[in-house]
């Protein structure tokens, strides 16, 4: 009988652990929805380094990205409040991107990922 009590406590403990794991995954899933994918972190790092960054400069730095994909990724980052876009009424048109205050909070994350990548052994 006492063994059943221990198992019930363990089951509660496992359920609590699962709840915590799910909550952490929800937060990570949210973050990955916003900054995940092949291009977003690279774009954010480029904008962070060359702020403000122009569309053409970003395109030159990431030669493998298509015009449509670059546009879509920038629009998503803008709609999520991570970057802001400023268009100047000039000919030819000039558009610049910079990090918003929310986007600036990602700078330590980006820097940590860069440092981790620099320290990762080449294979």
Briefly summarize what is shown:
The protein is mainly alpha-helical and 123 residues long.
Chart the SSEs and their pairings:
Elements lengths: L1 H34 L4 H10 L3 E2 H7 L5 H13 L3 E6 L5 E6 L1 H4 L2 H13 L4
Antiparallel strand pairs: 1-3, 2-3
Characterization of the model:
- This protein has 6 helices and 3 strands.
- It has helices spanning about 1-35, 40-50, 55-60, 65-80, 100-105, 105-120; strands at about 55, 85-90, 95-100.
- Strands 1-3-2 form a 3-stranded antiparallel sheet.
- The radius of gyration is 21 Å and the shape is elongated.
- The mean pLDDT is about 90.
- It holds the Pfam family HxlR.
- One of its GO terms (molecular function) is DNA binding.
Please tally the helical runs, counting DSSP H or I stretches of 4 or more residues: 6
Strand order of the largest sheet: 1-3-2
Radius of gyration, in Å, reads: 21 Å
Give the biggest beta sheet.
Answer: 3 strands, antiparallel
H and E order: HHEHHEEHH
How large is the share of residues in beta strands?
5-15%
Point out poorly predicted stretches.
Answer: none
Keywords: DNA-binding, Transcription, Transcription regulation
Pfam families: HxlR
Organism: Chitinophaga dinghuensis
InterPro entries: HTH_HxlR (IPR002577), WH-like_DNA-bd_sf (IPR036388), WH_DNA-bd_sf (IPR036390)
């Amino acid at each position: 009988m006492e063994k059943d009590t221990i198992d019930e406590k363990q089951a509660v403990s496992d359920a609590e652990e699962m709840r915590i794991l799910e909550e952490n995954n929800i937060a990570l899933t949210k973050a990955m929805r916003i900054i995940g994918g092949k291009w977003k972190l690279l774009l954010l790092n480029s904008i962070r380094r060359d702020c403000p960054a122009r569309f053409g400069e970003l395109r030159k730095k990431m030669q493998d990205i298509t015009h449509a994909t670059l546009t879509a990724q920038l629009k998503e980052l803008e709609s999520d409040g991570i970057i802001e876009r400023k268009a100047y009424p000039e000919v030819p048109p000039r558009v610049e991107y910079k990090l918003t205050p929310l986007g600036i909070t990602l700078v330590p994350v980006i820097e940590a990922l860069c440092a981790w990548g620099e320290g990762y052994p080449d294979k």
